[in-house]
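ISXO2-like transposase domain protein, Methanobrevibacter curvatus. C-alpha coordinates?
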Amino acid sequence: MRKVVGGIVDRFVENEAIIYTDEYVIYNNLINHEKVVNHHTVNHGGGEFARGEVHVNNNENRHSLLRRFLRIFRGVSKDNLQGYILLEQFRINYKTDSYDMILQTIIE
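C-alpha coordinates:
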Protein backbone atom coordinates (compact mmCIF):
# COMPACT_ATOMS: atom_id res chain seq x y z
CA MET A 1 0.00 0.00 0.00
CA ARG A 2 2.86 2.41 0.70
CA LYS A 3 3.97 2.08 -2.93
CA VAL A 4 0.43 2.87 -4.02
CA VAL A 5 0.41 6.04 -1.90
CA GLY A 6 3.81 7.02 -3.31
CA GLY A 7 2.49 6.49 -6.83
CA ILE A 8 -0.51 8.69 -6.12
CA VAL A 9 1.80 11.42 -4.82
CA ASP A 10 3.97 11.06 -7.95
CA ARG A 11 0.97 11.40 -10.22
CA PHE A 12 -1.21 14.04 -8.56
CA VAL A 13 0.89 16.13 -6.17
CA GLU A 14 2.96 19.12 -7.18
CA ASN A 15 6.49 19.71 -5.87
CA GLU A 16 7.02 21.01 -2.36
CA ALA A 17 3.70 19.69 -1.05
CA ILE A 18 2.55 19.77 2.54
CA ILE A 19 0.45 16.67 3.21
CA TYR A 20 -2.16 16.23 5.96
CA THR A 21 -3.31 12.69 6.85
CA ASP A 22 -4.52 10.62 9.74
CA GLU A 23 -2.16 8.22 11.50
CA TYR A 24 -2.76 5.22 9.21
CA VAL A 25 0.55 3.37 8.70
CA ILE A 26 0.55 3.56 4.89
CA TYR A 27 1.32 7.28 5.20
CA ASN A 28 4.39 6.86 7.46
CA ASN A 29 7.02 7.35 4.75
CA LEU A 30 5.43 10.30 2.96
CA ILE A 31 7.94 12.71 4.48
CA ASN A 32 10.67 10.83 2.59
CA HIS A 33 8.99 11.40 -0.78
CA GLU A 34 10.85 13.87 -3.00
CA LYS A 35 7.75 16.01 -3.61
CA VAL A 36 6.74 16.27 0.06
CA VAL A 37 8.34 18.99 2.18
CA ASN A 38 6.22 18.36 5.27
CA HIS A 39 3.77 15.74 6.48
CA HIS A 40 1.38 16.46 9.36
CA THR A 41 -0.88 13.87 10.97
CA VAL A 42 -3.81 13.78 13.34
CA ASN A 43 -4.31 10.80 15.62
CA HIS A 44 -7.92 9.75 15.15
CA GLY A 45 -7.32 6.60 17.19
CA GLY A 46 -6.26 8.77 20.13
CA GLY A 47 -9.28 11.05 19.82
CA GLU A 48 -7.45 13.86 18.01
CA PHE A 49 -9.35 15.14 14.99
CA ALA A 50 -7.73 18.54 14.52
CA ARG A 51 -4.64 20.35 15.78
CA GLY A 52 -4.57 23.93 14.60
CA GLU A 53 -4.70 23.80 10.81
CA VAL A 54 -3.92 20.07 10.72
CA HIS A 55 -7.04 18.04 9.94
CA VAL A 56 -8.48 15.79 7.25
CA ASN A 57 -12.08 16.95 7.57
CA ASN A 58 -12.25 18.17 3.96
CA ASN A 59 -11.26 14.73 2.68
CA GLU A 60 -13.79 13.01 4.91
CA ASN A 61 -16.48 15.46 3.82
CA ARG A 62 -15.77 14.85 0.12
CA HIS A 63 -15.90 11.09 0.71
CA SER A 64 -19.26 11.50 2.43
CA LEU A 65 -20.61 13.63 -0.43
CA LEU A 66 -19.37 11.12 -3.01
CA ARG A 67 -21.03 8.21 -1.22
CA ARG A 68 -24.32 10.11 -1.03
CA PHE A 69 -24.07 11.00 -4.73
CA LEU A 70 -23.36 7.38 -5.75
CA ARG A 71 -26.20 6.03 -3.59
CA ILE A 72 -28.81 7.48 -5.96
CA PHE A 73 -27.58 5.16 -8.73
CA ARG A 74 -28.10 2.03 -6.58
CA GLY A 75 -24.87 0.50 -7.72
CA VAL A 76 -22.16 1.58 -10.09
CA SER A 77 -19.99 -0.72 -12.18
CA LYS A 78 -16.23 -0.50 -11.71
CA ASP A 79 -15.92 0.34 -15.41
CA ASN A 80 -18.01 3.50 -14.96
CA LEU A 81 -16.92 4.54 -11.46
CA GLN A 82 -14.26 6.99 -12.67
CA GLY A 83 -16.82 8.84 -14.77
CA TYR A 84 -19.20 9.20 -11.83
CA ILE A 85 -16.34 10.43 -9.63
CA LEU A 86 -15.32 13.00 -12.24
CA LEU A 87 -18.92 14.19 -12.52
CA GLU A 88 -19.17 14.67 -8.76
CA GLN A 89 -15.75 16.35 -8.66
CA PHE A 90 -16.90 18.81 -11.32
CA ARG A 91 -20.15 19.45 -9.46
CA ILE A 92 -18.31 20.17 -6.20
CA ASN A 93 -15.59 22.32 -7.75
CA TYR A 94 -18.00 24.44 -9.76
CA LYS A 95 -21.13 24.25 -7.61
CA THR A 96 -21.96 27.94 -7.90
CA ASP A 97 -21.49 28.31 -11.64
CA SER A 98 -21.64 24.81 -13.14
CA TYR A 99 -24.77 25.52 -15.20
CA ASP A 100 -23.21 28.60 -16.80
CA MET A 101 -19.95 26.72 -17.39
CA ILE A 102 -21.72 23.83 -19.11
CA LEU A 103 -23.65 26.23 -21.34
CA GLN A 104 -20.49 28.12 -22.22
CA THR A 105 -18.72 24.85 -23.07
CA ILE A 106 -21.61 23.80 -25.33
CA ILE A 107 -21.64 27.18 -27.07
CA GLU A 108 -17.91 27.05 -27.78
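The mean pLDDT is 85.
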